[in-house]
Amino acid sequence: MAFLDCSPPERLCVPIVNHIQSLGGEVRLSSQIQKIELDSNGTVKSFLLTNGKVIEGDVYVFATPIDIIKLLLPENWKEMLYFKRLEKLVGVPVINVHIWLV
Predict the structure, then answer these.
(1) pLDDT digits (tens, 9 = 90+) for 78-100
(2) Which of 53, 66, 61, 72 has its CA nearest to residue 27?
(3) What is the value of pTM for the model shown?
(4) Contact (CB, 8 A) for 38 and 45
(5) Structural contact between residues 58 and 44, judged by C-beta atoms closer than 8 angstroms
(6) pLDDT tens for residues 18-74?
(7) Other CB atoms closer than 10 Å to residue 41's CB: what's the count?
(8) Per residue in 59-97, is it b (16+ CB within 10 Å) or e — as a string?
(9) d(Cα 102, Cα 97) in Å, to the nearest integer?
């Protein structure tokens, strides 16, 4: 973050949120995912939140600590090479993994 010319929320996060919203997307903060629900073809159907709400969309982006994504990962994804590499990562309080699911 040292390359930013001001605070990360102002210089990094706000432009990302503005871009997503300009394309018709929605940004939800403090929304805990309980389960990634899949279609029959193995792609994301929806996110089930801990408050019981279901989020459906065309593209999903979420940020979570590595330990949490390891818990949320659907069983049939765990053997995919892309996600199998997550096994080697160890979470620390200041690093998150950002995965874009299309």
Answers:
(1) 989 999 999 888 877 765 666 67
(2) 61
(3) 0.74
(4) yes
(5) no
(6) 999 999 999 988 889 999 999 999 899 999 999 999 999 988 888 888 888 999 999
(7) 6
(8) ebebebebebbbebbeeebeeeeebeeeeeeeeeeeeeb
(9) 16
